[in-house]
Amino acid sequence: MQYLADMVVLIADAATREPALALIIEPQLRDSETKRYSWPVYVTTARRVARCPAAVLVVICPDPAEAAKCRQLIRTGHPGFDLAPVVIDSGEPPGLDGGDPYLTVFAASMGGIDMTSEPGARRVLDAMASPQVSDPDRLRMTAIILRLASDAARQILEAMMTTSEYEKTFIERIHDEGIAEGEARGEAKGKAEGVLKLLDARGLAPSQEQRQRVASCTDPAQLDLWFDRAITAGTAAEVFAG
Question: Which of 36, 70, 224, 239 could lock 229 by a disulfide, CB 3.0 to 4.6 Å apart?
């Protein structure tokens, strides 16, 4: 029988470069009785495989009620060997005290920030627009947040992204990056990459046929039209209509 954790991150000692901590990360939508038997296995197995002196189980559970169940002490029956999982839920996610922008976006993805309000949406956009966030990470963050946001939150976020305050960061930079990358390969190819990046960043999920249609397009004017539509379109179909 195999026991496979969702993710294990090894943290090395800065001086010796030897494994110092094995971090087991388990997303959990609901409490499961089987986890009370498998989670202790994850901890001991991670220590054994990595030859690491310490291992910590972190459970990510958006629902506070289910998270409370996941926090229950797991008694193994061995004297002194009881496991108390570290559980993060939407009630108290990290990153809510002006911390790292990556933690702020993580808190938003957990539902810890109300993105249906302008202050909450602004908090998330400011985090993603931070100079600490690289352009590739910003694209990934934007795609994740727009996919996870409710319809109401997505409308607020998308409307704010097209304002003068955020447009240069979330729209123009994607366009300019695509043009710059494509300068050596032709204007059309650069613009096509910009269209595809914007579609992905806004979570519009174009089909493979639509992606191929963009990639094979050699008309800069047509690509500009698709890009302009992709800024505000609600679906990929709206971008390619007509």
Answer: 239
